[in-house]
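2.7 Reproducibility. Because tokenized structures are sensitive to small changes in the input, we list the exact sequence used for Outer dynein arm-docking complex subunit 4, including any N-terminal residues retained from the expression construct. No trimming or masking was applied before prediction.
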Amino acid sequence: VERTDHVSATIPLSPCLSALTDGVSRALDHIGHVYARIGKFQQAVNAWEEKIPLAQSNLEKAWLFHEIGRCYLELGKAEVAQDYGQKSLQSADEEGDVEWQLHATVLVAQAQATAQMKLKDYPSAVMTFERALEKAKLVPSEAAQNGIIAVRGLLRGGGALGSLCE
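Resulting structure tokens (single pass, no recycling of outputs):
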């Protein structure tokens, strides 16, 4: 493993420092999980954002950005959630991982639909979930497809879900 400093000189990491970095990364991962499970989403975000520079692969980044985005969605910050969903999707695309592409696409759809429902723009929210459904059909993930279809049905049925956002 190599790291580069500000003058672009390559400095090899010692095995001891590498193990320490891995330990810190795992600890931040666990801390974020605990906070998310007990509903302390901002603290989870703080832990996971600190972990970002320690991520070793695009797959890890896809997962990390997705988790941060989910927390922002729980915090009612749909726009920030959407940004993290896009970052997750980009990392999943770079990794070529279809399952994480689906997770990221669904997160982006949820964030967009949340914003659209607040504006009572139900047709746009339905179209957003239609795009997510197409991605779910590629995986294939029956559970994801059924979940997306259920939400889409609620939105089409006169905006019953929209009342939750008022």
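The longest strand covers residues 2-4.
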